Structure formats: C-alpha cells, structure tokens
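Supplementary Note 3. Input sequence used for the single-chain structure prediction.
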Amino acid sequence: MTRPVIFIHGLWLHSTSWQPWIELFAASGYQASAPGWPHERPTVAEAREHPDEVANLSIDDVTDHYAALISDLDEPPVIIGHSFGGLFAEKLLGQGLGAGAVAIDPAQIKGVLPLPLAQLRAGLPALGNPANLHRSVSLTTKEFRFGFGNAVTEEESDDLHERWSIPSPARPLFQAAAANFVMHSQAAVDTANTARGPLLLVSGTADHTVPDVVTRSTLKQYRDSTAVTELKQFEGRGHSLTIDGGWRDVAEAVLGWLKEKDLS
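The predicted structure, written as discrete structure tokens, is reproduced below.
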C-alpha cells in the first residue's frame, strides 16, 4: 500500500506552495497531498479576496481539522509541516495520529523559552496590535522579506511573496507567545509520548521567524521520550527554505530520513 503523506503549511503561505514537494514525493512512491487550513480558499487569489474566512482560527481548530482528515485515511500518514504546520505535525504525532513526522522550522511549542529579537520582530505584524487577535493579517513585501526571505535575494523574496503569501489568522501566534503562561495552552505537545513514531526537526540557521535556537530548544523538550527525535540543520537557510530555490535540498534530505526510518 502507498504510504500517505500530508503536508501542512504555516502562517502566511497557501497550501499550493507545497506543489513541488507533492510532485517529488509522488515520484518517490508516496500518496502526497497538502490540504489547506479550515475555510482556506483553493487558490492564492481567492484566499486574498476572502481574508475574514480564516480569521480567529485557533491552534486546536486547525489541529482538529487535520486529525479528522487523517482519520479518513486507510493507514497513518507521514505528517510534514512548516512553521505552524510543524507545530501541528508535532501535536498530531504526539496524539498518535501519524506514522512519523517532520517539523520544519516549527513554531515554538509550550516549554520553549528562547525568544530572540529577530523572532519578536518577525511576529510584530500580528502581535504588534492586540486587536489582531481575532483578525487575519497579511504581510507586506518588506515584512515577508524579513520573516521569510532574508536568506535569498530581495528579488526572489518579492517573487515568493507574490506567488504564495496569503492573509492568515493572528490567533495562533498569540497562543504560542503566551503558551508558557497558560496552564492548558493549545500550543502544548505530548513530548513525553514514547509510543509515537519518529520525529525529525529541521532548522534553517538563518531563520528569523523560528530561529535555530528555538528549534534546538524544541528538541530538548523531547528529552523524556525514548521515541526517535532528531534534528537536521541547514546552514544559512531562512524561513523560506520550503519554497525558495533551495527547496529540493530540504525535500531530498527529508525523503532520505524517511527511508532511513522505514517510513517509505
């Protein structure tokens, strides 16, 4: 039976940004798909025209959406997420809903303490105004350049923004930012689960939105689990590493890891 793979995007990118990955994984024998978040329109243009439809979505809203999709599959999938998609992948794997997971530049989960200045600045378009809690927020090309495209040329960053960037709910960012002060935070992950499948954390060392120190701190949260948890770092790569000109290097490394863990 063909192993299913579900790709989950993060804030400010559309699900279709995974298309090159879907094609590569399909060619490698996987049944690959990238379902959008709840209420996400099927195209970038439509998503931009209807920003309020995704406003106020919470971490649990999105996690439950993917959990329902997974429940309809014939076998547990590999879950691959980027940014907040990485956090969702970690939550779903912790709940026993995946055969394995890859969290690429994952948003910080409850327990992660480092909060670098670059990360604070990258989150300001949403977090800078408390009224954004229940709104959707878009990034300007300048904001996208700092948060996503700092490790590529300005021209490439602007092109990626034009092709893939969409309005996204600010609420998950507020939830993650306050996670360590909330007893039952939705950003909590069952990091102590010893029965779950393997987890690979991927970090770009030049990432502003999820700096490498944050991903390394995430790895430490799994120290009480005997399940496989590993970290792979990509030197000089930013938050755009899943969609920029070097995406294939990351995707092929993920494919190699899945094969190594018998998840092919």
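Strands lie at 4-8, 31-33, 78-82, 100-104, 136-137, 168-169, 199-204, 229-234. The chain has a mean pLDDT of 96.
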